[in-house]
User: What shape does this take?
Amino acid sequence: MANRRTHNLRAVLAGSAFRRLLGVRLGGQFTDGVFQAALAGSVLFNPDRQATPTAIALAAAVLVLPYSLVGPFAGVLLDRWSRRSVIWWTNLARAVLALPIAALVLVGDEGGLFLTGTLVVIGLGRLLLSGLSAATPHVVAADRLVTANAVAGTAGSVAYSLGMGVALALLGRVFPAGDHGYGALALLAPVGYVACAVLARAFFARDQLGPDEVVPHRPGVSGETAAVLRGMVDGIRHLGAARGAAYAMGAQAGFRVLFGALALALLLLYRSVFGADNLTGVSTQLGLVFAAGALGVLVAATATPWASRRVGGWRWVAGLLAAVAVAVPVFGLPFSPPLLVLLVLVVNVAGHGVKIVVDTMVQHECADVFRGRVFAVNDTVFNLAYVVGMVGASRFLPVDGRSAGLLFAAAVGYALLAGGYAMAAGRWARRVGDDIADPGRAVALTGR
Assistant: This one.
């Protein structure tokens, strides 16, 4: 009974430091939802434009791929700089950069400068989330990390969806559909980013969020570059020893490749088949999709801590992947909006459940001095896999997104992923013990 009390929601939320860190996360992700809804609407659902499947996929690649290539180096910085300072400066930088981006949307200029600015803002957001994840073990006890990750990830995803929902509600009611409306929405973002920066500065001391051991800075550009490269090599070697976390990250990457393909198909279906000419015209249908996604996150957050402690993280991940393999053809093939909403629900339960397990495995198996760069590597792979899935699917998806072949391929892919992960991760878990069901043993294995 005492162990259950330790892990329940009330115990996690009782920590004031965790609540403050959660508040910073929620404010940032809500603002991200508003800002990215404005950008997505301007590019994809603007009545003055209609992007092709390839254009949509390439836009995602432009926004994510460059950061995915430099993300691991950002992770090294998370292990070298005060994480509170990272949160402070990245939010301020995003607030400043959002202003010219909003101005470009207002005048309908979505060329290279717009894409570059958006790339930097989103890249800084990825760095910020990696820093928040790396800081979590500094505000909660080790035996509460599963629940803490569930709470933080769930609340953050809900806040992001709520931000998109608020933007959707404002469009057409307060702001007109089109360049001026999307630009006005984007102008709300700097306010939220500045507020999050101020909260982080006020809530935490400079070194309160880690890292515990700061790598000394080398003089000169060449010295810093060499230190970053050496740090990356050390981080990769450390992750190689933390095999349970590595297998889970690999399974999540495979999930994201297939998820990217399905997401592109769904977007095209709602834009074309279901009459989605713009965000205003399909607000009810898109609202159901967002609601299903948020509900899936909540279900995963409720079930994952309980299930992972009883069956083990690797079994839970394998089961989630298998469930998606079944759900994709059952709910997807009729191409019916109500059934697609159910598919979104199942996929989001699985995706968020896998993410909670991955985050917790990294926190348990990786020493704090390496944790920031491992989270950044994970975030890089997470986003790169999504883009690979979208770009690959764009090569053969029809303009309306209706493709039974894609759904069959995705179902087979998830089934193979579930089986392969279960074999590899199960073998490792039997060798060293499940680090989710038995966190104390995992800590001992890492030598901390």
